[in-house]
């Protein structure tokens, strides 16, 4: 799993690439949390366009970031998941609490 961070005004955009599974979930948690805390971020877009596989550990990593941002009264959303990752989010019921956007640009405009 490779992470790349972009900042658009007060929004942290996390570009994920690779597999978000039990091998990478902890590293993803630590790196995103560190960036949220260091830059006092309250709005996060998780760009899933480069993620080709995700398991339940990935769901846990996303939910954990949702809780962290929610505790700061912030917002988090998912952008550009592929068909398989989108299905996992749907089955897990994550879209009941986290918004999904087709593109990062759309997410930036709406968050």
TrEMBL record:
Domain of life per record: Bacteria
Iron in keyword set: no
Protein's GO biological process: sporulation resulting in formation of a cellular spore
Keywords attached to this entry: Phosphoprotein, Sporulation
Disulfide bond among keywords: no
GO molecular function: anti-sigma factor antagonist activity; antisigma factor binding
Role: In the phosphorylated form it could act as an anti-anti-sigma factor that counteracts SpoIIAB and thus releases sigma f from inhibition.
Family as reported in the entry's similarity comment: Belongs to the anti-sigma-factor antagonist family.
Protein name: Anti-sigma F factor antagonist
Species assigned in the record: Clostridium puniceum
